[in-house]
Design brief:
By secondary structure, the protein is of the alpha+beta class. The protein has 2 domains: about 180 residues, no CATH class; about 170 residues, no CATH class. Helix 1 crosses helix 10. The C terminus is likely disordered.
């Protein structure tokens, strides 16, 4: 049947060029209108709310006390995969007290969705200024291997000789594999010295504008672990809760139905030109369901191709242009809401095509032209 789907598609392109172009244009513009309606709806809703604290990072500060690394790791390990999936990186900077001297450490982490463990934030690792040596690999970091990158000491004339040596910190032993121009020490998140403390803030870098549910979870988990001893800024979020999500989905359903109805009208003409083809299929023993599958497969393939073209045009050309007027529009799309809109549209197309095809296939009088 796949063969006949593509054969019918080729016949349509050759024999009904104008109608085929109209089909492609219809599907192309429907995909753009769907994406634009979602983006402008969310953008307008955000702009109508009160002014929010809008930064590239969510800075959580602790009010009257600092916290230990054990407390921070317990909090981070309690965050859900959904929340961490919306966060590009988490950063915090503890200290280790050794005989009255403070050793600064740095954790710049990203969440590995496959292994469900933290690794070094790739952008920070790639941009880190190493004097000599290397950073731990992701696998070494996840496994908690005893490697350390130490800061550059301008007063140490024999600094390079420390590469490959071992250092002892808070009862743990680490092998020096790199020397950085930055002024902090780097070890695995999973093999950090127990005595790390004096953490007065956390920095979350969202991958994009985060959802309200992710922000709510972050607030609840902070309260669970730190009581009211923290300050979480109010930031711009997009709503994925039921009332707002249902509203925009109803809009998308309406647009999808309108687009699918227009496609049905255009495609009906193509189907009527193939009445004899349908008759041949029936005489050869093809079931009604198989014939419907061929025609619906044809329109679904053109819909997907046109939608991808429309999405590429929307995100590549339209969004950069209109973002000067809709400042949030480039930051509120996620794979989830794009997938939901696409599914609604495809299901609408299938439903309308089925409604249109059944009467035509059932009318035996139409086959008398054979």
């Amino acid at each position: 049947m796949i063969y006949y789907i593509f054969k019918n598609l080729r016949i349509t392109i050759c024999s009904n060029k104008l109608v085929f172009v109209l089909l492609i244009m219809c599907e192309f513009f429907v995909s753009i209108i769907l994406l634009l309606s979602y983006g402008t709806y969310q953008n307008t809703r955000i702009e109508n709310e009160n002014e929010r604290y809008d930064l590239d990072s969510i800075d959580v500060s602790f009010k009257d006390e600092t916290h230990t690394n054990q407390e921070i790791t317990a909090f981070l390990n309690d965050l859900s995969d959904d929340l961490l999936g919306e966060i590009k990186a988490v950063c915090y900077f503890p200290e280790l007290d050794v005989k009255g001297e403070a050793y600064p450490f740095a954790f710049r982490l990203e969440y590995n969705k496959k292994t469900k463990r933290f690794i070094n934030y790739s952008v920070a690792s790639e941009n880190s200024s190493l004097y000599i040596g290397r950073n731990p690999t992701d696998k070494e970091f996840e496994n908690g291997e005893g490697y350390i990158v130490i800061p550059y000491d301008y007063e140490d004339v024999d600094l390079e000789s420390k590469l490959g040596k071992t250092v002892h910190l808070d009862g743990k032993t680490y092998k020096v594999i790199g020397i950085s121009f930055l002024d902090d020490y780097k070890v695995s998140y999973y093999n950090a010295p127990d005595g790390l403390k004096n953490i007065d803030s956390l920095y979350f870098m969202p991958d994009n504008m985060i959802s309200r549910s992710a922000y709510t979870e972050l607030e609840k988990k902070l309260t669970k672990h730190f009581g009211d001893g923290y300050e979480l800024p109010e930031i711009d979020v997009y709503d994925d809760n039921v009332p707002y999500y249902n509203t925009i989905m109803l809009i998308c359903i309406g647009i999808s139905f309108a687009g699918a109805f227009l496609l049905m009208v255009l495609f009906r003409y193509i189907v009527r030109t193939r009445i004899q083809t349908i008759g041949i299929f029936r005489l050869c023993g093809a079931k009604k369901s198989e014939i419907i599958f061929i025609f619906i497969g044809e329109i679904v393939i053109t819909s997907i191709a046109s939608a991808l073209l429309g999405a590429g045009c929307f995100f590549g050309i339209i969004v950069p242009y209109i973002s000067k007027y809709y400042v949030y529009i480039g930051r509120i799309y996620t794979a989830k809401n794009i997938a939901v809109m696409s599914l609604i549209y495809i299901l609408s197309v299938i439903a309308f095509m089925y409604i249109m095809l059944m009467p035509l296939i059932n009318k035996d009088s139409k086959l008398k032209g054979l």
